[in-house]
Design goal:
The complex is a heterodimer. Chain A is built from six helices and no strands. In chain A, helix 2 crosses helix 3 and helix 2 packs across helix 6. The longest helix of chain A has 22 residues. The radius of gyration of chain A is 21 Å and the shape is globular. Chain B is globular and about 75 Å long. In chain B, helix 1 packs parallel to helix 2, helix 1 runs antiparallel to helix 3 and helix 1 packs across helix 13. In chain B, 48% of the residues lie in helices and 11% in strands. In chain B, strands 1, 2, 3, 4, 5, 6 and 7 form a seven-stranded mixed sheet that branches. Classes of the chains: A mainly alpha, B alpha/beta. The interface between A and B is medium-sized, with 33 and 30 residues.
Chain lengths: 145, 350
């Protein structure tokens, strides 16, 4: 009987461990912390898309990787920005992100139009969107042709 | 009447959602009275007709496999090992999502109130017929909201990988109550036919496949001894689906070309003072050679991805946000290029 229990345990315990591991298998990206139906998600995802469009506007994968590198450098200069104005000053000053200021402005205008969020939350949501774009692109770009 | 025709493609539907967002932001969707979707296209169509682009953006870039499928533990384990997607999974999570949008948040009522028609395609597994389920049937009291929700889920239910759906399961008087339905993409990946039957004179189609390239779902190179039955099956389904789509597009394209040929013949005859009686004879010849002679031949626009998409059965936000943005960018390019009509049937044969 004991032997039987032990052999079942040998099978069950690894399966349970695997099952637990699956709970941590799929980490959430930054904007996913907000409900998909919330205005915060809209604001965050729109700004994420501005960063994604900047990188994916070019179709060659090496160019995309180069753009991702440039955007990460830019992000390192704004990640501590407490306000939208701080982020936008940095965007205006960035001269190695061709087209990004326009993509940002388009998505930002739609976000302002479609949501009614407190001013104090906006910078955090924009940076969360940028962070998600970087994380997603780092994960996926190497596998693309 | 203008209609959207939206293809299948599982998680690649994020591309379609991105295309639709751009068209909505440009106000183009306002002139459309109908959308017909297969599989993932049946998820995009409703919000697209309603102009709900933020919903499309937020949902299509945040869902995981567990938001769509529910696997048993053993199938979950197989998926982890084989990494090819869900096998024989329940669609309960997706049903919950769809029900929330269309019933809890009144999506069906909004569509009916808008006067627009949203149609989804499924295939009846007992008789193999393509079954179209429409919001107009709900408006007429022929089917319930729940049945329409089930039809959307059935439209997304891919054979082998997921369970078939009893669309009419709660319609106690229906002769189809116990029938099972699967993804409409088995027979119509780009469901032009219904739009044409209803007299659409302009169709904007979004396909998740590149027209010139086959998508095989094979992925990276694999050693022969590592090729599993499941991988081979996924490849077969992917390849057959690709062929179904090519056939849909080719039929629509041939119809389009024939209508233009007919117009050219008529104009040339008139320019050369050929009698009306002879011209009518020519037109009759054309009509008799085209099986859909009474059908309206619509203007055809097709938007397809510039960047190939590899994964369809994996719902991963990191991947799907790329597909979504690619859709927006490709729609922008398409409009910037003057939104040319699709008429190059030959490239479908190459």
């Amino acid at each position: 009987m004991k032997r039987h229990v032990r052999s079942i345990s040998v099978i069950i315990i690894p399966l349970l461990l695997l099952s637990l591991a699956s709970c941590f298998h799929s980490e959430k990206l930054c904007c996913e912390q907000y409900s998909a139906e919330s205005e915060s998600a809209t604001y965050c995802n729109n700004h994420r898309n501005a960063a994604l469009k900047f990188v994916r506007f070019v179709t060659d994968n090496d160019e995309r990787l180069a753009r991702l590198g440039d955007f990460k450098l830019f992000y390192s200069t704004v990640e501590d920005c407490p306000t939208v104005a701080c982020i936008e000053d940095a965007i205006a000053a960035a001269d190695n992100l061709p087209g990004f200021a326009d993509q940002y402005q388009t998505e930002h205008d739609y976000s302002e139009n479609d949501t009614d969020l407190p001013q104090g939350e906006k910078a955090g949501l924009i940076l969360c969107g940028f962070d998600q774009a970087i994380e997603g692109l780092e994960k996926t770009l190497e596998g693309e042709e | 009447m203008k209609a959207f025709v939206l293809s299948g493609g599982a998680s690649k539907g994020a591309f379609t959602a991105g295309v639709m967002r751009h068209l909505i932001r440009q106000g183009i969707h306002q002139g459309f009275k109908m959308a017909i979707g297969t599989s993932t296209g049946s998820l995009v169509g409703g919000p697209a007709l309603l102009g709900d682009h933020n919903y499309l953006n937020n949902i299509y870039t945040s869902v995981h496999n567990s938001d769509v499928f529910r696997n048993s533990f053993i199938y979950w384990l197989i998926n982890e090992i084989k990494n090819i997607g869900p096998i024989d999974a329940s669609m309960a999570p997706l049903t919950k999502l769809v029900r929330h949008y269309y019933i809890t948040k009144n999506g069906i009522d909004k569509l009916i109130d808008s006067g627009k028609e949203f149609v989804v395609t499924t295939v009846n597994v007992f008789n193999g017929e393509v079954t179209y389920v429409s919001t107009k049937q709900v408006a007429a009291g022929e089917i319930s909201d729940e049945t329409f929700v089930r039809a959307i889920v059935a439209s997304c239910s891919e054979p082998v990988f997921t369970e078939p759906i009893q669309i009419y399961g709660t319609e106690t008087g229906s002769p189809y109550q116990h029938d099972l339905y699967y993804d409409g993409g088995v027979r119509e990946f780009l469901p032009f036919q219904y739009a044409m039957n209803l007299g659409a004179d302009e169709i904007w189609a979004v396909s998740t496949h590149q027209i010139k390239k086959d998508i095989t779902e094979w992925g990276d190179s694999t050693s022969p001894d590592k090729v599993s039955l499941v991988k081979a099956l996924a490849w077969t389904i992917g390849t057959l689906t690709n062929e179904v789509e090519r056939g849909d597009l080719f039929r629509a394209c041939v119809g389009y070309r024939l209508s233009h040929i007919k117009a050219e013949i008529k104009k040339t005859c008139e320019d050369n003072n050929i009698s009306t009686a002879v011209i009518d004879q020519f037109m009759n010849i054309c009509d008799n050679m085209f099986p859909g002679k009474d059908m309206t031949i619509p203007k055809l626009h097709v938007i397809t991805p510039t960047t190939p998409m590899k994964t369809s059965l994996e719902f991963d936000p990191a991947i799907m946000q790329n597909y979504f943005v690619d859709g927006e960018l490709d729609a922008e390019r398409y409009l910037a290029g003057g939104a040319p009509e699709f008429n190059d049937c030959v490239q479908l044969l190459l």
